[in-house]
Amino acid sequence: MKPISLTIFFDWILLSNIEDPRWWLLFISIFLPWIIWWKLADKKRLFELLTYGLLWGCLATWLDIFGTSNRLWEYPVKLYDKVITLFPADISVIPVLFTLLYQYAPKWKTFFIGSVIVSSLFSFVFEPLFIKLNMLNLITWSHIKSFIAFIFLALLTRGIIMLVKKLQKKFIVD
Known about the structure:
The chain has 174 residues and is mainly alpha-helical. The protein is 72% helix and 2% strand.
């Protein structure tokens, strides 16, 4: 295996549009949500919350790869041109907001209502804003499809975590 050289790092910096404020918005959005999350997270549930966030990040990344590869949408501005997805959203912004929702909405009803609100924020506020800033181009996708997908994924992810927690209790021996 070949070690990562500094050349790759310098190429990334030199070939990226670091003079573009949109690039910096993406760069900062990798770290800032997790810093905020750390301050708000229930540290007694750290493993559970991080597992939930990691599952969200994996699903969001996989679906972003699927959507961009199949030309459902594209990102004109990216942190690194060789990566087709919008990693700051996939691994930071989306998982953090939904993880906070998971933490603060322990019942299915409140979680569903919160999912509708967070999904609306992503689909009907952030997506149009990113389109206006020329950071997102919807090709054959729509805000309504995003809205439905966000809600479905939020419920699916919560369901998976709840199932794993239930299964784990079966195997714990005191």
